Structure formats: structure tokens, C-alpha cells
């Protein structure tokens, strides 16, 4: 193996790959925020006792979880313009990732809320507290501690799923790697480098997950 040639290859590709890494993190975080904004009300809708409220949320979750993210990207970026709904590539990518993440996050939140003892609700109601006050001040703080691991897993998955937005010409890490590979006769080191970067990002967010879990566990003591 020519180590000098390998070092030169990685040095030449480094600027574009680092820029792509920044886009990857930005897309993942933006999609996580978007997913939470969609997932929280969806979870509450799925917890409703009224079928008319539950049904749209159940349809959304089923569609997003039951179809590939790549197909969802194609629908939003390539099909919607045919009916007059056109999104720039960045918006289409974040929207698709947010819709997908929102479905999974809603299930994490719903499961965590259902995991809180029914006695917590009854105790709050017996004190004259209303549904929304009990939800926000009694149930959700406990549910959040339970939901953090699965929500963190969704964020880690988003880090890897951003590689799919390259199909709508967004220059995140994977597209930057493909562009670097196009001018190289030895693509394996570049793809391995991209894999290591994704792995390091995942490790970073795993460390953040453990930190949040410790903080929440201390707050519950």
C-alpha cells in the first residue's frame, strides 16, 4: 500500500468531506427538532379516546414507518412538483427526515406516557388538577426519562439516514464522499473514512444520551 498516495488522497478530500459532515449534523439536528414538533402532538392524538382524532395520527405513523425513507424523499422532491408543490432540495430533505422521525418519535413518546403509572393520573385528578396540567407537570417529566434512550436512537439513526438526501443533490457527507471518489482510482479509503466519521458522530450522540440519562435520573431522586 502506498501510504503517501493514501495520505494525499485523504488530504485532498478532507475539505469537502468536513463540509459534508457539517451539513450532516445540521440536517440531523434540524430533522430531530422537526420530528419532535410533529411527534409530540401525534403521540397525544394517538392517546386520545376519540377515534376521529386517533385515526389521522395512526395513518400518518403507519405510512411513515411502513414505507422506505428513500421513497418518501422521492415523493416529496420529485412527485409533489408535478401537482404544483415544489420544495428546494434542503427543505425537501429536512421535511422528509422530519416526517419520518416524527412517526418514530411519536411512538417513543406515546409508549413512555403509557408507561407512567395510572395512579399518577388518579392522584393528580383527586387533587383537582386538570388533564393538561397533569400531563405537563406530572406525567411528561417522568415519561421523558423513559423516552430518552429511544429518542436518542432516533437521532443516531437520523445521522445515518442523512446519507439518503444525497439523492436530492444535497451535499452532505455521503454525496461529498461520492464526489471525491469520482476523481479517484481507489474509492475504498474514502468510503471507510466516511464510515468512521458516521461512527464518531454516533458515539458523540451516545455520550450525550448517557449524560441526559444521568441528569434526568438525578432529577428524579
Automatic annotation (TrEMBL):
Keyword Cell membrane set for record: yes
One Pfam family per UniProt: BPD_transp_1
Membrane protein topology class: Multi-pass membrane protein
Segments crossing the lipid bilayer: 25-47, 188-208
Keywords: Amino-acid transport, Cell membrane, Membrane, Transmembrane, Transmembrane helix, Transport
SUPFAM superfamilies registered for this protein in UniProt: MetI-like (SSF161098)
UniProt record similarity statement: Belongs to the binding-protein-dependent transport system permease family. HisMQ subfamily.
The protein's name in its UniProt record: Amino acid ABC transporter permease
Source organism per UniProt: Massilia rubra
